[in-house]
Write a structure and sequence with these properties.
- The N terminus is likely disordered.
- The longest helix is centred in the first third of the chain and has 13 residues.
- The chain has a domain of 52 residues.
- Helix content is 35%, strand content 9%.
- It has 164 residues and is mainly α.
Length: 164
């Protein structure tokens, strides 16, 4: 595994003509990391600078939010929310915008969040707001989290541009 990490660090510093939309990850590196099997992806601090990490996390200073099916809350309870290895969230501000733009269209929400089409069909969704995400170890996802699906991409943003 250490050899893989060294490869990515090397690629980041040696190949950097085109950067992804967040200006923090080289497109070629992003594609390589995204293509790796879940469980084998490097931690973002190996291919992101501290400045990029801080810039990304600044988006969450006013809070974070996520959506969850009510059936999940009913099944697992409400004492502890999220997954043991981390919960994907977006900034509260972006969640407000997303839900306003969706106008109740669940398929739109799925598409914007990188949720497989129809995964939330026939579910009642509950919005969870996290007013102080920095007290809960908010961090850039590696893609190794149990909630990362086949639509996950490296770089801390969703394909639609929302910060994740």
């Amino acid at each position: 595994m250490k050899n893989i990490y060294l490869l990515f660090v090397s690629l980041f510093f040696c190949y950097n003509p085109l950067l992804a939309q967040n200006n923090c990850i080289d497109i070629k590196v992003q594609k390589i990391i995204t293509s790796l099997k879940k469980g084998c992806r490097p931690e973002p601090n190996l291919y992101w600078s501290k400045e990029c990490n801080d810039k990304h996390l600044k988006q969450f200073k006013e809070g974070a939010s996520y959506l969850v099916a009510q059936s999940i809350l009913d099944r697992f309870g409400r004492t502890l929310l999220g997954r043991p290895d981390g919960q994907f969230v977006m900034s509260k501000k972006e969640m407000d915008l997303l839900l306003n733009n969706a106008k109740g269209n669940l398929a739109y929400v799925e598409t914007q969040l990188g949720i497989p089409a129809g995964a939330w069909k026939n579910n009642i969704l509950v919005r969870i707001d996290i007013p102080l995400p920095f007290e809960l170890n908010i961090r850039i996802p590696s893609g190794n989290e149990s909630g990362a699906n086949e639509l996950w991409i490296a770089g801390g943003k969703l394909p639609t541009g929302y910060y994740g």
